[in-house]
Write a structure and sequence with these properties.
The protein is of the alpha/beta class and 290 residues long. Helices cover 41% and strands 14% of the residues. It binds 2-phosphoglycolic acid.
Length: 290
């Protein structure tokens, strides 16, 4: 019996959507994902500021998906302020991989989805350094996030001393490989996965990676992803750059062929700066989907 390609794709999409809830396969014509502009507000802002930011945030520019990752307690506030708009997604900054139980002070994936999150940041360097998250813990969270219908943004990056010692690519390889090793077969739909290259020395320091450094690291990560998932699939994984991104340095970073977006801390606390970063990404994307 002959099946048409569109029918098979529609069937696969329906099954994946059913399995993954809102995080299902994007429609076929959107397979090349948009650039992602993600705000990591960290432990900043109160409800009033968060509400105003979301209410006044201008529409996501063409070719760009906008994501806000507020502190967990502000997720419902921001969701309410966004109302029915669909151009801005919400994400969590962390989660506990167990589904429920005696984990004082933690939040499960299901609770975060219930509060409006569809993405989650996994393995941010502050979690690794300040909360002792090992590569293995990060891998567990990556696998669990996908299983629990949260789209993970896996953060990797070297410290300054590791860069000075020439260990950058060894560190990136280990962090990526250990995390990916935790994923069960079959491989996830690559468009559901984001990897953020965040050199630790650039985070919150005002000292961004150069475009050449960002491109070199992003290309390295894409090559490793290609070895794991196949090179065509690796092109659909969004690779972000994060670390002191500002409207001033964004154009050069956005022009890197392997940089598909930004994960932004400090500059995301200013709506004007955040919107400017969106316009820069949109211009780099040619004002539309790639
Ligand atoms: P930054 O933070 O933009 O303030 O450097 C980035 C991040 O931690 O994701």
């Amino acid at each position: 019996m002959n099946y048409r390609r569109e029918d098979i794709e529609a069937l696969v999409r329906a099954v994946v959507t059913e399995t993954l809830g809102g995080a299902g396969l994007p429609p076929a014509e959107k397979r090349q994902p948009k650039r992602l502009l993600a705000a990591n507000w960290k432990m900043n802002l109160l409800a009033t500021d968060a509400r105003r930011f979301a209410a006044e945030l201008s529409a996501a520019p063409p070719g760009v998906e906008v994501l806000l990752c507020p502190p967990h307690i502000l997720l419902p506030v921001v969701r309410e302020a966004l109302g029915t708009r669909r151009d801005v997604s919400l994400g969590a900054q962390n989660f506990h991989p167990e589904p429920r139980g005696a984990f004082t002070g933690e939040h499960s994936a299901e609770q975060l989805r219930d509060a409006g999150a569809s993405f989650v940041i996994v393995g941010h360097s502050e979690r690794r350094a300040l909360f002792a998250e090992t590569d293995l813990v990060v891998g567990t969270k990556l696998a669990r996030a996908l299983r629990e219908n949260l789209r993970p943004i896996l953060c990797v990056g070297e410290t300054l001393s590791q860069r000075r010692d020439g260990a950058t690519f060894r560190v990136l390889r280990t962090q990526l490989d250990v995390a990916l090793a935790a994923l069960p077969a079959p491989a996830p739909e690559p468009a559901l996965l984001c990897v953020a290259y965040e050199p630790v020395w650039a985070i919150g320091t005002g000292l961004n990676a150069t475009a050449a450094q960002a491109q070199e690291a992003a290309a390295f990560l894409r090559e490793r992803l290609g070895e794991r998932f196949g090179h065509a699939a690796a092109r659909r994984v969004r690779i972000l750059y994060g670390g002191s991104v500002t409207p001033e340095n964004a154009a050069a970073l956005a022009a890197c062929p392997d940089v598909d977006g930004f994960l932004v801390g400090t500059a995301s606390l200013s709506r004007e700066k955040f919107e400017a970063l969106g316009r820069t990404l949109s211009a780099a994307a040619g004002g539309g989907d790639r």
